[in-house]
Amino acid sequence: MNFAHKLATTVGTVLALAGAQHAAAQGKGLDEPFRDGYKKALAGKTVGFIPVAMGFDLTNGWYLGLKKELEPSGMKVVLRDPNWNTGAGAQAFTALIAEKPAVIVVHNPDVQTYAKLITKAEAEGIYVVQINMRSAQPSTVFVGADWIDVGERGATAVMQACQGKSNKIAIVQGAPTAATSAYTLKGVENVLAKNPQLKLVSNQAADWDATKAKALTQTVLKQHPDLCGIVGFWDGMDIGTAAAIKEAGLTGKVFLATSGGGEQKSACDQVKSGAFDYLVSYDVPTQASNMAAMIKWLVQGGVKPGAARQNIYTTLLPITKENAGAEGTCWKLAAAR
Known about the structure:
The chain is an alpha/beta fold. The protein folds into 2 domains: 42-144 and 284-306, Rossmann fold, CATH 3.40.50; 147-281, Rossmann fold, CATH 3.40.50. It has helices at 3-25, 35-42, 57-70, 86-99, 115-123, 147-161, 179-194, 210-223, 235-247, 264-273, 284-298, 333-336, and strands at residues 46-50, 76-79, 103-106, 127-131, 141-144, 168-173, 199-205, 229-232, 255-260, 278-281, 310-313, 317-319. Strands 2-1-3-4-5-11 form a 6-stranded parallel β-sheet, sandwiched between helices. The protein has a 6-stranded mixed β-sheet with strand order 7-6-8-9-10-12, sandwiched between helices. α6 (147-161) crosses α7.
């Protein structure tokens, strides 16, 4: 935007506001001066969404939230579901770049696979918004949890629950190549460093898979029947961890901390049942709202794709038996449809 354009815009705004003051003084209705420009900027724009897969609370909630917030403004949200296939995800990303949407929202399966595609998309004028799981390549916006904080909170809860017990704990990671796992692990390590009484007897990856989580937890509990706590990295996977604890007759004796999107069945109901003792929620509807707000701002032309590197960390909510039954603690996927 050159000086003459800026001056003309400023003068136009001043005149519009002066006209508003005049009309208000006369008690008349008037046109809002910024409304038309906003609507024109959003109308007809396409947003592509590439999750790791659909079919669970996080990705379904983000998709529905984006549609709810963006489509009434004339935008179109298109879904490309690679169904846990990293290669298919890269192909979908490449195809979307060729279609030239205004924005691509991507849920990275690991730190490397989409890195070059993120650079390519922004070089071609497409904004890239990353949700929850980062790539090694930053983009214009990241919306997601502060995973180090998530790890510290979970490990601190386990540490407190283990006081007066064996102090033996275990970690059930997600996929080791995902930034989410690496950052959460760093948070757990921070707590371990300050609490040398804790004994880490197992640190294994279940790759976000509940079946793997159950199998490895069964083995750990056989080797360490006096285990006092487990830090899990995702509620969808830790359903398996909880099942292994229950089968061993240790529910209530082995403290299980995990994290998730705060959906009723995945979070609050599991805490109320005793399957999880502590869950850090990053509240999917809030994340979807944050993404939509950033997208609306970006497509109005304020920033060149790739020219900024901004982060919006989601406010975290710990869920325990004290608040799991309270109205508003969790959201319901069925109601979001």
